[in-house]
Amino acid sequence: MTTLTREAALVATDLGPDTLTRTPLLADKLAWPGGPLVELAKGLIGSGVTKAELDMDPSVLHLAASLLAGIWSSAEAPSTIVLRPQIFPLASGVQLEWHAGRDHVEISIERTDVIGLYWTNSQDEWDVDLAPGRSPIPRQLVEAVQRITQETIHARGPRT
Amino acid sequence: MKSYRRVPLQPNFLKVDSASGLVLGPTSAAFKPDPADNGVSVYRHAELESLGRSAEDVANAGRTRAVVATVLDSHVTDLDLRVLPDPMGEPQSIGPAHALISGWEGLSSKESRRRQRALAEGCTCSHPPGPWAALAPPG
Questions:
Q1: ipTM of the complex
Q2: pLDDT for the residue A19
Q3: How far is A22 from chain B (nearest CA, A)?
Q4: Given an 8 Å threshold on Cβ–Cβ distance, is B114 in contact with A127?
Q5: Torsion of CA B32, B38, B42, B48, to 10 degrees
Q6: Residue ranges per domain, chain B?
Q7: Which stretches of A49-124 are assigned E, i.e. beta strand?
Q8: Where does residue A73 rank: exposed (0-12), middle (13-18), buried (19+ CB within 10 A)?
Q9: Fewer beta carbons within 10 Å, N or C terminal of chain A?
Q10: Which pLDDT band holds residue B137 (cuts at 50, 70, 90)?
């Protein structure tokens, strides 16, 4: 099992490219698109998320929308081939999940200063706390979402 | 010894394999401790039996549709959690069998999520009886 602590992620972010090169769990660039909430929310609705599912605290929604936009951007997914997550309401936030075959991804957003990321491909698993806007989105997480998307498209066809 | 956990379907708390369309089981979010009492609400099988009730009564007790997950005491204790009796007056049919999965105090959010995930992965479907994959995916 491979685990990256929040502290390690933050240190890697702060120390720069040399450290990032030696830290293969992390992408080599930040992938946090900014922008107004309304624009990010439009992206979610375009992916198939319903307006009812967007009924959450605006700060949580902003983080969720920004992170999803970052994942989809990093995955270089065409706008018509993004796989919307399952969205589970939490008492003070939201949990986003993708599952297909051996790949499982869970994202928990309950606070504005940390996002919980968990993903596994049955052989390895990662449990990472991410500092929004500071920690790079882990490459392996993006790859897991890519694999789930491709497997889903292969099985069910693209959503258009 | 075992307990029953209601897993609501509205909103749905069942995760689905997006490729196969099969239900995989409850999301870990379904086992998140209630902030009010820092516990996960369950109903004890033995107490329900003494009341002449079953997992089906747990499913039908709420205002929203739900399926029922079974959690073994041994799994709870393996996670360094415990099941504490917490009998309630309502609903009258099953309230006396109410209990809480406790022991979340002082855990980091990451550790709390890990144990929620373990509970979700270790539970089985008791109502309707059968494997999770036999459930119709939530609409």
A1: 0.93
A2: 28
A3: 25
A4: yes
A5: 180
A6: 2-131
A7: 86-90, 93-100, 103-109, 115-120
A8: middle
A9: C
A10: confident
pLDDT one-digit tens code per residue, B82-128: 999 999 999 999 999 999 999 999 999 999 999 999 999 999 999 99
- Report the candidate in A158, A156, A119 with the shortest Cα–Cα distance to residue A1: A119
Mutate to test the interface with A, among B110, B115, B119 (most CBs of A within 10 A): B110
Judged by a CB distance cut-off of 8 A, whether residue A50 touches chain B is no
- Would an 8 Å CB–CB cutoff place A103 in contact with chain B? no
For residue B34, the cross-strand partners are B39
Smallest CA–CA separation between A19 and chain B, in Å? Answer: 25
d(CA B42, CA A150): 38
Q: Give the C-alpha separation, B81 to B13, whole Å.
A: 22
3-state SS, residue B57: helix
Residue with tokens 């059968």: B130
Question: What is the Cα A77 distance to its own chain's centre?
Answer: 13
Q: What is the pLDDT of residue B15?
A: 97
H helix count then E strand count, chain B: 4, 8
Helix axes A58-74, A37-46, angle to 10 degrees: 60
- Minimal CA separation from B57 to chain A, in Å: 25
| CA–CA separation, A90 and B90 (whole Å) | 24
Contact B24, B78 (CB under 8 A): no
> pTM score, two decimals?
0.85
Residue type, A31: A
- For A67, phi then psi, to 5°, come to -65, -45
pLDDT at A132: 86
Residue B35: is its pLDDT beyond 80?
yes
Residues of chain A with pLDDT under 50: 1-30, 160
